[in-house]
Amino acid sequence: MFNPAVVVPVYNHPTTVDALVRAVRGHGVPCILVDDGSEPGCAAELSRLAGLYPGEVRLVRLTVNQGKGAAMVAGMREAARLGHSHALQIDADGQHDSGDIPLFLAHAREHPGAVICGCPVYDASVPKVRLYGRYGSHIFVWINTLSLDVRDSMCGFRVYPLAQTVALIDSHAIARRMDFDSDIIVRLHWRGVPVINQPTRVTYPQDGISHFRLWRDNVMITRMHAVLFFGMLLRSPLLLWRKMARP
Question: Domains (ranges, CATH) in the chain?
Answer without folding.
Answer: 4-245 (3.90.550.10)
